[in-house]
Amino acid sequence: MEQVLPPDAAAVLGQARRVVVFTGAGISAESGVPTFRDDLTGLWARFDALQLATPEAFHADPDLVWGWYEWRRARVRRAEPNPGHLATAAIEALLPGTVVITQNVDDLHERAGSRSPVHLHGSLFAPRCVAEAAHPAPLPETVAKPARPATLPVTIASADHPAALPETVDGETADPGEGGRVPPPRCTRCGALVRPGVVWFGEALPEAALTTAVEAAAGCDVLLTVGTSGVVYPAAEIPRIAARSGATVIQVNPEPTPLDRVCAINLRGTAAQVLPALVA
Ligand code: BV8
């Protein structure tokens, strides 16, 4: 059935009652945070991000992968939220009940004022012990000191594994630059390696986050999909679930994506240009 395009995205949003904003790496691009499809630079230019963001890569070369995440954390710490993030927070303020769902592992939505974005792929700022699942019981008395002072940029407490990780040393990110391999710190509880608190390819998404996202997509009347190529699953199902549930899906992306065909409105522009116009 030929989609009858609603008159205007801002009007559609203005009449919406339950909105979901679904974001990908593109919303952070204008903050200077590279997307997954940008060419990697420096040491990592030899790799595809899809290769580095895997448990196998970390197992094979923890220093390389940890260094990549330190470099990314440093990039995010130096970045500022852009008008796309700020407009997303403005939509939440205008339409209470708006759910922000992000594939991104940066904290730019939070720093723009979004209250509790649903992180489907975890966070750069929540490293955790690789053996976390192995510590359901009270922790062993012996506490292995990290092999060397942690260079971790943030307080890395993990709810399931409290006080298991080295404290912040200097609060600053140890930016390894373009070519830095950085040995990951050790868990102060069990001595195992600390890993990035993100969901790697081949790993399951956090169940609660995915359930919240699916329920929000199935129950919204408008879903804004912003800055995602729509090819990473199961996250890429979220806009499709909204469309199947009868929501109006509006895409903001300068490029065509596989999501074009499920979108009632395709706004060919960048997040920082288009989103503020939607809430003006
Ligand atoms: C899993 C964290 C199973 C790490 C990331 C079908 C069903 C289920 C799984 C699969 C499936 N088919 C294939 C799979 C496997 C795989 C997958 O989807 N592979 C892809 C490559 C085909 N999925 C998985 O492995 C998932 N896990 O399935 O586990 C399982 C189940 C039970 C038990 C055990 C196992 C896990 C996927 C999560 C991977 N982790 N991130 C990290 O960040 O380091 S995904 C990673 O890609 C990022 O999170 C990123 O956000 C995400 C998606 O990319 P995008 O956000 O879309 O970014 P991208 O660069 O691609 O595109 C940017 C877009 O922005 C572009 O369109 C561009 O035009 C646009 N843009 C650029 N500038 C702007 C802009 N838009 C607006 N404004 C701008 N200025």
From TrEMBL:
<keyword id="KW-0520">NAD</keyword>
<comment type="similarity">
    <text>Belongs to the sirtuin family. Class III subfamily.</text>
</comment>
<feature type="binding site">
    <location>
        <begin position="253"/>
        <end position="255"/>
    </location>
    <ligand>
        <name>NAD(+)</name>
    </ligand>
</feature>
<feature type="active site" description="Proton acceptor">
    <location>
        <position position="121"/>
    </location>
</feature>
<dbReference type="InterPro" id="IPR026590">
    <property type="entry name" value="Ssirtuin_cat_dom"/>
</dbReference>
<feature type="binding site">
    <location>
        <position position="187"/>
    </location>
    <ligand>
        <name>Zn(2+)</name>
    </ligand>
</feature>
<feature type="binding site">
    <location>
        <begin position="103"/>
        <end position="106"/>
    </location>
    <ligand>
        <name>NAD(+)</name>
    </ligand>
</feature>
<feature type="binding site">
    <location>
        <position position="129"/>
    </location>
    <ligand>
        <name>Zn(2+)</name>
    </ligand>
</feature>
<dbReference type="InterPro" id="IPR050134">
    <property type="entry name" value="NAD-dep_sirtuin_deacylases"/>
</dbReference>
<keyword id="KW-0808">Transferase</keyword>
<feature type="binding site">
    <location>
        <position position="271"/>
    </location>
    <ligand>
        <name>NAD(+)</name>
    </ligand>
</feature>
<dbReference type="Pfam" id="PF02146">
    <property type="entry name" value="SIR2"/>
</dbReference>
<feature type="binding site">
    <location>
        <position position="69"/>
    </location>
    <ligand>
        <name>substrate</name>
    </ligand>
</feature>
<dbReference type="InterPro" id="IPR027546">
    <property type="entry name" value="Sirtuin_class_III"/>
</dbReference>
<keyword id="KW-0963">Cytoplasm</keyword>
<feature type="binding site">
    <location>
        <position position="72"/>
    </location>
    <ligand>
        <name>substrate</name>
    </ligand>
</feature>
<comment type="function">
    <text>NAD-dependent lysine deacetylase and desuccinylase that specifically removes acetyl and succinyl groups on target proteins. Modulates the activities of several proteins which are inactive in their acylated form.</text>
</comment>
<feature type="domain" description="Deacetylase sirtuin-type">
    <location>
        <begin position="1"/>
        <end position="280"/>
    </location>
</feature>
<protein>
    <recommendedName>
        <fullName>NAD-dependent protein deacylase</fullName>
        <ecNumber>2.3.1.286</ecNumber>
    </recommendedName>
</protein>
<dbReference type="InterPro" id="IPR029035">
    <property type="entry name" value="DHS-like_NAD/FAD-binding_dom"/>
</dbReference>
<dbReference type="InterPro" id="IPR003000">
    <property type="entry name" value="Sirtuin"/>
</dbReference>
<dbReference type="InterPro" id="IPR026591">
    <property type="entry name" value="Sirtuin_cat_small_dom_sf"/>
</dbReference>
<feature type="binding site">
    <location>
        <begin position="227"/>
        <end position="229"/>
    </location>
    <ligand>
        <name>NAD(+)</name>
    </ligand>
</feature>
<keyword id="KW-0862">Zinc</keyword>
<keyword id="KW-0479">Metal-binding</keyword>
